[in-house]
Design a protein that fits this description.
Structural class: mainly alpha
Distance between the termini: 172 Å
Oligomer: single chain
Order of helices and strands: HHHEHEEHH
Number of helices: 6
Helix content: 55-70%
Largest sheet: 3 strands, mixed
Radius of gyration: 42 Å
Length: about 220
């Protein structure tokens, strides 16, 4: 039996592999391989890039933490400030009434020895004892001033109490943040205020008696 293969049948049969069977010449394209050697300049540039990315990441995390600390401080402080302001308004009304009562009781005496301008100055001095607004003092270490102070100020503005917040910078020996009230606000005492007004009344009357007493008879 003769085995005969028709060349036309072979040419028409589809190829099993689709790659080029021509091996003449150079490869059509070069493959992409990672670089294994770098110059000193390239290494330095890569180090700077990595350092900058790390710095930005650390600064972003620190900024978020600082903002969170400032927001928490201001939230606590604003709650205390609101409560103190409400109490102060009540005490202010009571103390103003007290000052007016004192002024009415002394009105005859004052009119006898003092001009109207001095009476008004005296009352203004008494009432000035009532005008001190409570302040929220936040003590921060000096090492945290650059980052924390602007964050606290921004949060205070956002909370609407920027004018009532005072930042006090202490040395590095105080690494922890501490929330405090100013002494006047923390120790606002109606009894102490009454004593201060009465002391002002006594001082004024003593000066008035010394200034307007008639000269001794010769």
């Amino acid at each position: 039996m003769n085995s005969f293969i028709d060349p036309k049948t072979v040419e028409e049969r589809p190829n099993r592999f689709a790659f080029d069977r021509s091996f003449e010449g150079a490869p059509a394209a070069h493959g992409s391989f990672p670089k294994t050697r770098f110059t000193r300049e390239e290494v330095a540039a890569l180090e700077r890039l990595a350092f900058e990315k790390g710095r930005q990441s650390v600064e972003a995390a620190a900024a978020q933490e600082v903002t969170a600390i400032a927001r928490e401080l201001l939230a606590q402080g604003k709650a205390q400030l609101d409560a103190l302001t409400a109490e102060r308004r009540r005490l202010l009304a009571e103390s103003t009434d007290l000052a007016l009562v004192v002024a009415r009781k002394l009105s005859t005496r004052l009119n006898e020895v003092c001009p109207d301008a001095e009476v008004r100055a005296f009352l203004a001095n008494c009432l000035s004892l009532l005008r001190d607004e409570p302040k929220l003092t936040i003590r921060i270490p000096g090492t945290a001033e650059t980052l924390l102070a602007p964050a606290i100020e921004a949060e205070a503005r956002a909370a609407g109490i920027a004018g009532a917040v005072r930042i006090e910078v202490r040395g590095a020996e105080r690494p922890l943040l501490r929330l405090e009230w100013t002494q006047g606000a923390a120790e606002f005492d109606p009894a102490a205020l009454s004593e201060a007004i009465e002391a002002e009344v006594r001082r004024f009357l003593e000066q008035a008696d010394a200034s307007f007493s008639p000269p001794p008879n010769e």
